[in-house]
Predict the 3D structure of the following.
Amino acid sequence: MKSFRQYMRLPVVWRIPLAVAVLMVAVSAVISERVLDRLGTLQESYLQGLSTSYLDGITASISPSVLRQDSWEIFDALDRMKSESSDIVPIETIVTTNANAVLAASDPASRRTLGVLDDDFLGKFPATGVNLDASSERGYAMRDIVHQGRPIGRILAVFDAARLLEERRELLATLLLTNTALTAVLVLVGFLAVRRMMRPIQILETHMLDAAEGRPSAISEHERAGTNKETRRVFRAFNRLLRSESERQVLSRQLAKEEKLASLGRLASGMAHEINNPLGGLMNAVDTLRKHGDRGAVRKTSLDLLERGLEGIGEVVEAALAIYRPERLSRPLSIQDFEDVKLLLGPELRKKDQTLDLSFSGPSEPPCGCPSGPVRQALLNLLLNASAATPAGGRIEVAVSRADGGLTISVADQGSGMPEKSKEILTADATRIPPRSSDGLGLWIVRQIADELGATLSVAETPQRGSRVNLQIADIREEELVDVA
Amino acid sequence: MPQRGLPDGIAWRRSRRMFLRAASAGLAAAVFPARAFAGGERPIRFGLTPVLLNTDLDLLTLLRRYLESATGHSIELVTRRTYQEITALLVSGQLEAAWICGYPFVKYREQLSLVAVPEWNGRPLYRSYLIVGAEREAESMRDLRGDIHAFSDPDSNSGYLVTRTLMFDLGLDPETFFRKTLFTYGHRNVVRAVASGLAQSGSVDGYVWEVLRETEPELVTRTRVLRKSELLGFPPVATSRAMASSPAIAALKQALLKMRDTADGRRVLHELRLTGFVEVDASVYDGIAAKVVKLRGVL
């Protein structure tokens, strides 16, 4: 099982030739077994035929001698057989009485006349047929000599099976050699064929991995060389995909920029109003100074008035600059940033007679570590969205809370619930494709910022039928801050 | 081989019979060819026993050719498995002559007559050998107790009678002394039986053993001689008394006695490792006769 898992981890270029090798070994094992089995059967029947004809011949010629127990005549017959044909004559023939006493043997020196054969030796002889003993390379056959229906003795013949067994060994060696060579060739052919087949896929894989890591590159003409029509179609499709992806990215960047400018335009009018509001007071103060500037108390009051008014204008300008050029505000997020956003949104809220409640819980100056610029922009967009959803005279709540290891910014509106499409932009499994219309572009930017910050977005219903968007930002360590900025 | 005249009816039947025998016996045709005779010459039927190496076909061809040319008769060599068969044929007159053993000659002395006796090493005498396996540690007859013993033939002097007489002299019970006895019907077979280990000891013609030592040393060196008997009369060529004075026998006798005088004859003698044939008195066989007398009632 373990080795199978290891096998599955191998590249396809190796897996297929290995599978071919295993298959070939299995097939050759089965074939070899069948061939050897068949050969064994053939050899046994050959030996069977050999022993039958030998035993038939010898039985006919020695039966009368066995009846008379004439050892000499039996020996003489066996001895004369010896000189006849070497193919058929066994290496040893023994003629015994029914009690297994040797009447005569082809080699009396090893089988003493009248000696009784031991059971070990007799055990090698089957009642019928031939017993082929591979270890001693001998075949054993036995025949009862029957005279007038009664057994009068027995012939035991030991055949030399070395040649037959040698034949088997040679065949096995040939089979092994042939199959090994065949397997090796097939594995090599399989390896080369699979490598060739896999090359386009490997090229595609390399390019896709590069693209996923942000280094997209088209499949070059050189890489397309020598591939078939189907592969070239896939390569062209990949290149087209690559082009359309890069075009879409350019487009989305453009759209984001335009949306930023659009929201800025809306803010600019608010800002002008914000600057215009104190302007009347400021002009009055200047007028007062001009008329009664010689009076110390009046001068002081007027100058204070001027200072506060100008500071207010300054704050508005500063906040606007922070939105437009967030890179200036890569400093860590602070409570002031929330106040700034509230200030920036002031004109928009007043226009619709809406109120914004900003509340903090947990430590007052939380070292969130996140850069203020992106958070301000995200919050601004969320608030603009909330303001748009909330009817006139409604209330928008912003709750900033610190929890373990992170900051949660929660924006609740009093609208009629967020449309699914908008929810999807915020929470669906990442899509970098910007919405087709400018609707929801603000939320899309929020999503982009959240992704960049590694923050998570969630949407919930409020008890008042409104929506609550939660932006959870994990704490960022100091060194990482630089990269994000 | 010249064909002497045309075959008459009897001869044709005879030749056909011979042909059939030859066709079934293969090589035998070269030794016993179909033979016609003419001019009243009767063939001499000459019986052979395993006293000599009657299985050597070349030797038999040489012998037949010599005898035919020396006697002017056609010669029919007749072999049988046992001494008894040849002796019976000879006594009953179905053979003109036969090379038999001294023992049957003594047994049928009344019916038989000597033609000639071979000389071996210049004497018409030979010995019987008691042989054992070359590696066998035995020193005397008594050490052979419990053996499987190979005899040549119950009618053989050297291959049976001598050993049985020795056992009688030593007081050994032939029923129990040997575990088993075999008759191999041939002296060469006795040597084979002992050499192969089928039998542990054997009784054999000393002449045959010595000749075999020269011609088949690989067989004979696997045996050794434990005991040699006293000198006894060499197996003779004998005829029935009734035929002893026939011209054919006279011709045969001359052919045998003069064998050493011709080149063909000397070739035959050389093959047989004999020095010649002589005419001797039947008293040469007195030694064998004494054994027969001794064992009368025992065998």
Q: What stands out?
A: The mean pLDDT of chain B is 86. The interface with chain A takes residues 148, 150, 179-180, 182-184, 189, 192-193, 196-199 of chain B (CB under 8 Å). Chain B has two domains: 41-124+234-294, 128-229.
